[in-house]
Amino acid sequence: MRKPLAKTMNEIHGRTAWRESTEIEAAVSNVRSVGHDLTSPADLDQLVERFGDRKYVLIGDATHGTSEFYRWRSRLTARLIQERDFSFVAVEGDWTNCYEANRYVKGLPESAETGREVLETFDRWPNWMWANWEVLEFLDWLEVHNQLLEQDDRVGFYGLDVYSLFESLDAVIDYLEDVDPDAAAEARDAYRCFDPYGGDAQEYTQALRMVPETCEDEVLETLTNLQEAAPTYDHGQDDYFNAEQNALVAKNAEQYYREMARGNTDSWNVRDRHMVETLERLQRHHGMGSKGIVWAHNTHVGDARATDMDQRGRLNIGQLVRQHEGASEVALIGMGTFRGCVIAADSWDAPMEELTVPPARPGSYEHVFEQASETDQLLLTDELDDETPLREPRGHRAIGVVYHPNRESGNYVPTVLPDRYDAFVSLGETSALHPFSLHADRTHVPDLYPWGL
What we know:
Number of strands: 11
Oligomer: single chain
Number of helices: 17
Helix content: 40-55%
Protein name: Erythromycin esterase
InterPro entries: Emycin_Estase, Hydrolase/PRTase-associated, UCP036794_erythomycin
Radius of gyration: 22 Å
Pfam families: Erythro_esteras (PF05139)
Organism: Natrinema limicola JCM 13563
């Protein structure tokens, strides 16, 4: 039974010191009684067994710059693919870039020769999320795994996000040039609406704040024309699916930037609805019975209704897929860290740097898990009873790509953890991700997967 969520972190920490101490002790004791040690890939057995038949397994992270999050996520993903026949991985990345990674892992025509060549094309900030050794090792593993499968059975790698407006516009025209030059000319004319903005989505957003003349009709018309003409095209299904998705990205990206220009909080919802729409399209594309794995930040993966996001009118992927499919068809897995290092930046578009993550604040979930065990922990929330003290709302740290360790108070999301996730991975001390731009070769990069994927 879901408990009422405190409205703010001030409410959560406004309790008396005695009450707070008692609640922490009770929560720590509960973790000790139900938590499972996480020390090797074999400890993931319970997740594979419990969630291997789910339609979607969403694996979150508390930062986009922590090596251990990427490594545990890759290990679990590899096992779900190998042992439970999952069909695709969908990540919080741009569709256009990730489709080139998909070409590589599937061995499709005109694919790159190496995974690193693919990842170094990820040039949109924050590119360290994908252009790193951790992701490269997973892509190379997936490419080898796929070589053992028939082409139609190969596991895909796709981007869910909505940011690639201009790249997707170009991709639609390129496709139509091959299958329908007249339609390509019409699309080019429609997309000229965006010409004044020089291929810069932020310029489009700024312009809308001054003169609210949008390109909404143009992107919708091109998507509709493409869908209506599709039965007449002589094309491969993968190529058409990619083109249609790019037209959809263009439509939804235009809406996203339009909402941003209006200062509307609904831009977040536009983005997460688009990611869910893409996820559902991928599942249908891969056929009846196919299953997908999602990689995204905890703020997208964990059910928004178990946080203060719900009170602010925000929804997310985890909430929507639970609502669309039913909770029994979906597994939401969160991750957190007590202390360590992270790759992040001081401001948007600023250079990346390695930053220290200080010990989590007292009373937070991260603090509770650290107090409970010296060993990394795995919590399965269905093993908690209704009266568990872990249902008491408390802070749960979320670190973004812009991060200021000296201003930590704003990084804690009021959360009822058992309602937010089906499982939670708590890591005591973590290390920074290994981007190519900071680690040009493997000389000083540790053995990332000492047990293998």
